[in-house]
Fold each of these.
Amino acid sequence: MSYHGGEFDVIVVGAGHAGVEAGLASARMGADTLMLTLNLDAVAFMPCNPSVGGPAKGIVVREIDALGGEMARNIDKTHIQMRMLNTGKGPAVRALRAQADKFTYQQEMKETIEDTENLILRQGMVEDLIVENGAVRGVITQTGAKYYAETVVITTGTYLRGKVILGELSYESGPNNMQPSVNLSYRLQEMGFEMERFKTGTPPRVNGNSIDYSKTEKQPGDDVARAFSFETTEYITDQLPCWLTYTNEETHSLINDNLQRSPMYSGMVEGTGPRYCPSIEDKIVRFHDKPRHQIFLEPEGRSTKEVYVQGLSTSLPEDVQHRILKSVPGLENVRMMRPGYAIEYDAIVPTQLWPSLETKKISGLFTAGQINGTSGYEEAAGQGIMAGINAALAAQNRDPLILDRSEAYIGVLIDDLVTKGTNEPYRLLTSRAEYRLLLRHDNADFRLLEKGYQAGLISNDRYERFKNKEKEIDAEVQRLRKAVIKPDETVNQVMADAGTAQMKEALAADVILKRPEISYEHIAQLTPPPKTLAPEVAEQVEITVKYEGYIAKQMEQVDKLKNMENKKIPENLDYMQINGIAYEARQKLSEVRPLSVAQASRVSGVNPSDISVLLVYLEQGNLQRTSEPETETPASN
Amino acid sequence: MDFDTIAAISTPMGEGAIGIVRLSGGDSLPIADKLYKGKHPLAQASTHTINYGHLIDPDVNETVEEVMVSVLRGPKTYTKEDMVEINCHGGITSVNRVLQLVLNNGARLAEPGEFTKRAFLNGRIDLSQAEGVMDLIQAKTERAMNVAMNQVEGKLAERIQRLRQELLETVAHVEVNIDYPEFDAEEMTLEVLRTKGGAVREDIDRLLRTAHQGKILREGLSTVIIGRPNVGKSSLLNSLVHENKAIVTDIPGTTRDVVEEYVNVRGVPLRLLDTAGIRETEDKVERIGVERSRKLVGEGELVLVVVNQNEPLTEEDQELFRLTEGHDAIIIVNKNDLEDRIDLARVKEIAGDRPVVTTSLLEDRGVDELEEAIRGLFFEGDLETGDMSYVSNSRHIALLTDAKKAVDEAMTAAEEGMPVDMVQIDITKAWELLGEVIGDQVNESLIDQLFAQFCLGK
């Protein structure tokens, strides 16, 4: 039995972290959007650790905010603790991390969705897609509803043919015993999508009342008001601490003694797990020399006693989990509330996507989040907002928005996925970004707000405020370049206080600011600005001046590569014709179909020599199009 | 890719028993068949066979050469294209004539290195191999050949790979502190960075020091012979040339005079400059050439100063000694078959560090000592028997120099108290530059290193 459910511009399948950003972005851009989820109580659910942000990830959250997304605002309203990480290092790698109240996080997000114009949130499990002439037309739910739309975004997370594994036990399930989505995966395979099977895991949760915190180290939040969103003005000051403890020899021998019962080693798990999020049994096997591993105890919210045992992700049998927990200092009398488990799920091989996250096989069909082989709420949300924007843009017949690697971590993430694919759940790391000095936490608005505004996701008000900030920074930097400071007693007293060398001759203020010991505050003492600067403006001024040399260096690299980025490759180029390219590289290139030479150079298995040949080939093609006679082969050695 | 057919002489210019003219490209066989007369046309010959026959100049229908022709059909050839190799009699005239014929019948003269370029473009070899092969072609002596061979076989790559691994481990350590700030890995302090950076810099330096030698091995050590008239410069020249097989080269576009000769002295390739000048002037009464000597010394990397044992040291001799101060030079006290009239102690005193060898070039005495002195000067210390991974390619030298600069900048930044993630930018750059030398720059290896080196994750 089926019925006509309605017509929309965009349908979003799933309401996890990718789905909510996709749906909100699309609706906010004016597209009529339907968001379907198989369980309304699982909107923006955090099935694993109750935290948002961290290195690279935290910067993604800010990028989402600059593009007009929701994650930053939502966590600002619902966290129990926030910290700035890497404060002892340079500005490029500073990042915020918040511990979430996972329940209010969900409630808050759901309410935002419910209040959003053009957006319908509905429970329903999508089992099939309506496809006509290679273009998606809509979706069909389990209950027989046929919904039609211009574009569809699939964000199925770990639900897609999900299977929970716990010791010797395994059963079909989504995360946290929710219903899995089975049929859609088979339908995608029938449509010709290549799928891969990934695995991830989660640790047990325990009752906080049964923890002896006196045997652990307290990990409080920062005592400075912090926020992810550039727009947040109200800060949560009442924070909850996390706690640190360690595994020990007893823990390790318990695990070793029970390895044969671990599904990871008994061969029950077929999916590939992530190296960066290994189970405790993995850590002990691979790094058996390490005498102890860290365990962070993280409260899951303000209105619950459940505590997440970070560092103890495991799929060992439940009885072993009880014993492992009790071997850890502070947890001797702990009461486990939910066991840890591993979950396997289907993902599509992401090289089947264009950089817009539209599938190459079916036009109008987008995928985002864990289905694309990533892991992490932030990675999901970053893709979600891009897929939502591009689905709406496509529905509105506008060109897609593609962020490049020098513009955003989101750009790095998507480029990595669609260009290289991934053979394990993909996590963002700052080391994946080649221009991380440009991709800072503090300048996400400078990188992306304009684009969010163009897409229609940023209000005029906010845009105005941003433009003013930009002007103030510029003016102050210019002023510092001209302000000459002559050494006298007061000046050298400031120098002495800062712990830097005395000045012998007059120097421009920006030159002085470049000294590592000198901060903008010192400079403001030496040459006060006409009007006291807001802290975020002062911060930008300081970073701009202080790291000018390094920033210029990275900009140079970006410019160098721009040539290659701008060299476009026709979508339908027949790589198999180009004999000079190694056979393996030809196959890879045919699969990925990169849009630029720069992207081609990042395809794995493609060597610099293949790129030289490709360049020669493209160049020859150009020459032959403009002049009839055969042209000479351009020299390249 | 389809290219036109190219041809070139692929044996060294000069006297030799045979010479080879090589063709590569789709028309190699048809072109050769226009000229070849044998039992069967080459088109019918199986691939990788050698065929006896004659070359005919089709214009005048005249037999030009007796030849052996190799037929090599692509893709199992050096360039992956159809190739033909015509083995003819050696000597410049006959080889040139064959080349000319081939060119008149549809082939194009190959640019230097174009065969290798095709091998590269056709996907037969990678960039660093291509460069190694280029050097192989240009290799002037056996030792230079070894260097080139090593490069092809990846000795250099191995050494650079080791350096990169050091850097990678350092970077991974920095990265782990950044990406996992709470992880209990020891912080990569600037102190550690300094030590590691210093070690890497030294290694790059060592490689760069071999670059000079590599270049000499490839291009020859430019050598000049100076001395007053009639001290035996010409005999010295002849002795070096006759003892060691000389490769004579013309410099095109100047005169037909032979101005440079290559000799291989115990593995050291000498490029003897102005040999025509020496031969010419020594025949006549030579004009006093201090100015000329000064100019020559400026061009030479090795200066051989000849004095006459049969005469007391003159003012002019001493002037020549002064000219060579600070140069690699060897003092040759010649004519020791004649009466000893020179103050040898004085010569040695003036010579200082520069080796002094007494010879009788006329009676062929002392030549061994001279050659040993040349070898000793070039291969100081353990360099000769040690690692043969000389860097001899200018692109590699440039990349290594840049890599060293990047490490330097990282160290300076560390000194200045820049945050570790800024310092890391230059370390990563050094790592990438070294990767470019060996044509490997996959970013993923850092991530792999990170997870192999540290136990990470929640």
Amino acid sequence: MISSMQTSRWNAILVPVLAVILGLLVGAVLMLLMGYDPIAGYSSVFQGIFGNSYFIGETLRAVTPLIFAGLAVAFAFRTGLFNIGVEGQFIVGQLAAAWVGASWDLPPGLHAAVAVLVAMVAAGVYAGIAGWLKARLGVHEVITTIMLNYVALFGSNYVIRTMLKGATERSKDILPSASLQSEWLTNLFEGARINWGLLLALIFVLISYWLLMKTTTGYELRAVGFNPHASEYAGMNVPKNIFLAMLVSGMFAGIGGATDVLGVNGNMAISAGFTGIGFDGIAVALIGNNNPFGVIFGALLFGGLSFGADNMQRVEGIPTESIQIVISMVIYFVAASSLIKWLLGKFRRRQGV
Amino acid sequence: MNFTDMLTIIINGTIIFSTPLILAALGGVVNERAGIVNIGLEGLMIIGAFAAAVVAIWTGETLGMPGWLAPWLGILAAMLAGMLFSLPHAVASIDLKADQVVSGVALNIFAGGVALFVVKKLFEGAGQTTTVQNVFHKVNIPFLNDIPIIGPGFLQIYPTSYLAFLLVGIAYWVMYKTPFGLRLRAVGEHPRAADTVGVNVRKMRYMAVIISGGLAGLGGGTLSIAMSQSFQHSTVSGHGFMALAAMIFGKWHPVGAMGAALFFGLATALAASGQVLGLTQYVPSEFLNALPYLLTILALAGVVGRAQAPAASGKPYEKGSR
């Protein structure tokens, strides 16, 4: 007889794994219906992720910003806030890092650290606007963060065009002293743009976990998210905690933006549209059940499948969108986990355990 | 350019740009008043835009149906596709007691994936449909159109805009003047009380989600066959989220949501015609583009204030639970 505690532990791992399997199955059926070979399709995705060390390195490069975006969304979710503005905060982080990286003059290493720090603070403050509006005036954070995304997009384009413009439609390149690129890692992965950002991402997963689960502040943040009225009754400062939660959430997004500029491109493009990374962060957080460690799993799955999908389209001619559909089904099955738990329960009863 | 011309351009642009938002925000209102959160409006608009473009091309150009009929069939398909694609969200939120935000996010990704997958399949790998030949044209009403400002500003709009305003009226009437509407709102405010007096919570919520899907699909359809005249990955780009914002801005009320959508439309019209109106001489275009969003934040912070969602919004209803 398995105790209910153990069952729920098992379910926490089994549900996402089964959701992935079911998602892949739905994707396979869809490919069959559309006249493609799902086995060839999935093996080309697999090849596109693990096929050679360059692909592995590039997959990890794609996963890095997703970890940050996922952390940002998950942190806000755990504190009862829906931060759709990670996209905009990511952009603010990119801009701040590009600005510090290109126009300040500091010793190597320190320069990169300062650029990351400035990006972190800038994006945190930017997200803090939405937090402050929610805390003081009760303005719904979903609207303000959506609006702030657009303001960040157009605002950063303006700053690049008028103050930071390089030779092309991009910002000036950052100085080598601010770079997060790693020759060692790039050589190890045969030229892939994997960089120190990945290490930073893993460190911030730990920080996020520690902050949420091991500190009084984290406890208060979660309490306010869980039940603001009870928290207020218990003497917690609800508005302060709402503001703080958005601030920290934005900080994660900002560092993600910084690693993208300092570690991968070395500059920031004037862009007509969003990067999409902030929105993908929502999916990553949800697959990871809003747990900082779960976010790593979510980012690996999301980033890996999306990156591998390019290879599938190249080799097998199957549209990358089929993988997008697989990802959506995984999220759907995670949402509808009661269905999976019910199936598991049935299975267990039949096994008599 | 004189003042009358400028005013005409701005008024006309406001109505045209706000139409898809009005329809989708209306969908959001119906949904959330019944207690179901729908982040999936974006996805439903994508699938609507896709269905409208593909069906208008297929009926008008492949089957050779009359040019006036094809866009109407397209818009009908958009509505039906929106209803169909809202079903998984309904099942997840109502029967599987899923987290409605998560399910809505899944719907957004799913709809975008399906639409582009099929487009690539139908149009030999291209990421967009061909240009729709039979589209809606702005309505010309004899005599009335000659009235300055009112004619070319207010009346010379796409038939879909007239449809949108009509649907706002219908939605208001149904939601506030009929027993059905009362039940719908009761289910979103206090499902247990509604259940006690014999309202079928499950059925009402299913209907709300499906109606909402139809409206959001319509909104998406107007984007592809009245405005951009094709479907590609960027046709909808964020309109669903703007509609969501309009719904909250309009305090979950059909007329309020329309007002908020018109406000976004106005700001978008100002940005879009900045060049024509000569505004870009004085203000950088990026500022004009950011204006709708900045104005919204200011309006929410200063004027509108605290928004109160329907009490049971986002909460699955379990019969017999306390």
